[in-house]
Amino acid sequence: MKNLNEKIINQQTRLAAEVLETMTPHVLEHRHPADRVLLRFFKSRRELGSRDRRFLSECFFSYFRWLGWTRPLGLKPLEAAALSWLLDRTDLHVALQADAKPGWEPLGGKTLDEKRAALAGWFPKFQGLEKAALIFPEFGKAVDFPSGGEDLFYETLQLRPPTWLRLRDESFKQTLTEAAIAYKEHSHAPGVISIDAGTSLGKLGHGGQFEVQDVASQAVAMIAAPALGSDWWDACAGAGGKTVQMADLIGHDGKILATDIRAEALHECKKRARAGGISNVRMQLHDLARDKPFTKEFDGVLVDAPCSGWGTWSRNPDARWRTDPRDPAQKRNLQVKMLHNAAQCVKSGGVLVYAVCTFTREETTGVLERFLAEHPGFALDPFVHPLTGEPSAGSLQIWPWEGPADGMFIARLRKA
Any idea what the Cα angle at residue 200 is, between residues 356 and 16, rounded to 5°? Predict the structure, then answer.
């Protein structure tokens, strides 16, 4: 970054201004995910190299991460981007230096209270802005935090989470070492490692050696724990992260049916399975909420249901500004219906797993309690928490600060 010449620096400054001014409305007004908005921008500017793309991505996501504090200050887009960068890091990108005010200093590594104190000294308008301003006002009414959890949540919310990998080949750790990429092994889950956010693995060409998958997402398949040779249905497979993980667990003699309502998601799932050398997964379009349940029964069914997605806000900071506070209540009825339809396809003695990447009361314990009340043939099935080794009565909430990871609720139910 220090070696960039003035022409490149000026170009990156202009690009950052263009992205912030033209792309931000697509996120805030039209509620398009920031990563897709950026991808469209990059496709329209194919001359941009990896250095420019990386800078623009980090600038854009940092801008949304701190929008709740920078927006009330009345800053211009590039000024807000420079301040957001300083809040995130221990330096300032040269392309943003001209828009930083005298006296602004890097605040990366400091606590939220320390950052609040610094901003209060720099901006008279900042007085009175609390941590809760980083999220929409109705948020607190929907979540039951454990003791001390709310402060931990806000601290984690404003940090870039690491990139989590699920190793399919332990030798990949040696590949990382040779590429001078530092990694950390999970303290309890074997084959799970993390690397710094933003680290590029594209040049390593994994060839099925690893999957990029959040550790909370990995915990879902660990809790499902499909037996070798068993027959499972992944009813909301999406791009197939959990599908591929379960396929690794059941072995070549087992079978998985992966369904989703989106053909493009199943196409990605198929590519993922093929890259991993997996041949025992069958794909099929299916709407779990509206289509008739299958007549076939399975050893286990996984319902990784559509949800409000509040558990992904650290990884997708723009999502908190695209969220409708009514989402949890609207998603709850859909989730109950999906569980009801999936339950009809579970064999006697089989397993039904419910997962949502959120922590709202309505979508987690609320859905679980309603389902159990309406389906007395199912009961919670105790398991060991795969990320801590602690016993669970059959359901658990993974909080964002526990990874750091996505917030994820998981319940395992057994049919009598």
Answer: 90
- Assigned CATH class of 216-415: alpha beta
pLDDT in tens, 270-319: 999 998 899 999 999 999 999 998 999 999 999 999 999 999 999 999 99
State which CATH number among 3.10.10, 3.30.450, 3.30.70, 2.40.160 fits the domain covering 163-211: 3.30.70
Contact 415, 378 (CB under 8 A): yes
Query: Catalytic residues, which ones?
Result: 357
The answer, as to whether pTM is greater than 0.90, is: yes
CATH 3.30.70 residue ranges in the chain? Answer: 163-211
**Residues 212-253: pLDDT tens digits?**
999 999 999 999 999 999 999 999 999 999 999 999 999 999
- CA–CA distance, 409 with 335 (Å, rounded to integer): 13
Q: Are 254 and 230 in contact (CB under 8 A)?
A: yes
CA distance 208 to 194: 17
